[in-house]
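Quick one: non-specific serine/threonine protein kinase from Triticum aestivum, structure tokens please.
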Amino acid sequence: MAVRFLVLLSLLVLASSSSGSTTSLATNATADGGSLDILDAGSVTEFSFSNFHPEYRGKNLTVVGDADITKGALQITPDTGNEAAHFLTNKSGRVLYYAPVRLWRLEKGGGKGNASAGGKKVASFRTVFTVNVFRPSGADPAEGFAFLIAPSAGEPPAGSYGGFLGLTNATTDGSAANQVVAVELDTEKQPYDPDDNHVGLNVNSVVSVANASLTPRGIEISPVKTAKYNVWIDYNGSARHITVYMADFEAAKPASPVLAAPLDLGATVAERSYLGFAASTGTKYQLNCVLAWNMTVEKLDEPSNNRGLILGLAVGVPVGVLALGAAAALGYYVCVVRRRKLGRDQGSAITGTMIRSLAGGPREFDYRELRRATNNFDERMKLGQGGYGVVYRGTVADDHSNPAAAGTAVEVAVKKFSRASTQGQNDFLAELSIINRLRHKHLVRLVGWSHDNGELLLVYEYMSNGSLDQHLFSSAPGSRPGQPLGWELRYGIVQGVASALHYLHDQFDQRVVHRDLKASNIMLDAAFTARLGDFGLARAIETDKTSYTEEAGGGVHGTVGYIAPECFHTEKATRESDVYAFGAVILEVVCGRRPRCDIDGFHFLVDWVWRLHRDGRALDAVDPGLDGAFDEDDAERLLMLGLACSHPTPAERPKAQAISQILLRSMPTPAVPPFKPSFVWPATDGGFDTMSTTAGSTSSTVVTSTSTWSGNFARGSQNHAPAPEQDTSGSLV
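--- reply ---
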């Protein structure tokens, strides 16, 4: 155990030091804002909407003018079947994110690096949104739609309909006092426009400072046949440069932009500005709909007096990390020896010292602050409990994740580890070493940590809508009565989890297997966006390896119904076993039933769905609570994908990248046989490495069964399996 703790501690130091040094030097490093990907979670503000609901008005979004939220979309101008002359023409509206974002700050001493001659540091940002500009009854479209940066969340100016796009009016157009910047998609030619199908950059005026026709690129903003487009806008605060990309909804981000231009936001917009959309109609009209929106903005905290020290550490990382690693080894050895001699465990002090030394590490909380935040860990504040510990709801001083909320109180989830001494430290460091470096909009964000008084605590972003299972099942702990999750929300949740899984498996610098993917570990934020959480069982594996095996103790980790059949023979976690668990989640979301359930003589949901598929009645599996309100094509897609992910042979399951493409509707689902294949082990097609090396020895498992996994389980062949409904992970539920 001592060796294992030391290895974990050293890996945490090495990985985080490398990540922290890169972060401190890479801000605004690329022209398209790509450097935002490597900033730590505390260095960016992020929000994501996979769809929109009326209850977001006044909470997550400010809706003003003639805008509305209906039909799962932002209607920036009205969408109605009423008389067009009164309800659709000469309208303007705006929808803005509810809180302002800091886009620049004054630099002390005239400013350096990012700062311009005006002495301002300007934030980089990146946004992508899906837009549908629709012609009702095939009418000629007009006027236009825009992504907007505005100084306030107030109503659009009076008279801002027609060619003013909800941005300015005849009196204010061109005034620097507007402090408005917009990227327009214009469908009506004015004397100053190149045509009626162009993208433009507007600064305090609807007369663009740069524009480009989209016609040569084969893009028509509002074609006769309905079309959806993704628009990417990347802004580099260091280079003072903006690039705009546009492509069909199902296409990847293009290599070349449709528009690129210099832009100094520090000289143009308010220091704290609002981000969102504006649009207008004139005597001609169109429906301006935003279907989804993601936003990432670099945070601009006050300059630190330790900037020179941070830079020095970054430059000296190769030497410093080695020295730090050696110090960690020596410090650990000394403390363990002393503990054995004196009967005292001082690992808390070592771990705390090591984590504090990490560049870009998470925030350290004082234990007393977290005790106050949770009302002394009051049972009434408990959110969940498992073998790894208890999670409490709490309120702490602002963690600066929201630039507009400085000095306010924010809600957090505090995970208190229950296992003490070396094993507790192993669990604590294993989780921290992974989650501290992960950066993805569909992962629960780590806020901070505490390791005082022998208590091990991790502090996470609080998810106000709880976990997915609380919305699917009335029997779930903390269940939330009311209307079941609508179909669009369910599809968006599955998409979000798939995106997170693709990141963990393929896009992070190490392959990460979650090992406990289930509905109770999928959290929902205020916008019902899915966030995968609980990394207590997650482990990183080398990029040239395929699986992770426990070094000691062994055993099957996870929850029955989500555990892939091969895991009971190999006791190994793989990307394929994660995909199997994801398949169980898909079927759970579509059917509104738990993976382990008794229905029509079956003991597992997957077997029942496969039988319906064989009989050509797969759609009969859809949750009756939806009362028929679902898209049949999408339901068929999810059910077939869920079965494909549940294939008994690991190599036959789709990869996470393919899953994401399937859910984007850009790839067909894999062919699913009408009869569920038998589980045979070892797999004969070499789909993944069935050998593992642990502590210097090599082992191989050879087990063959001609019966299906779930059928074998149901008949009582449970020599490798826990009892039904038992959670073997010890993780939080």
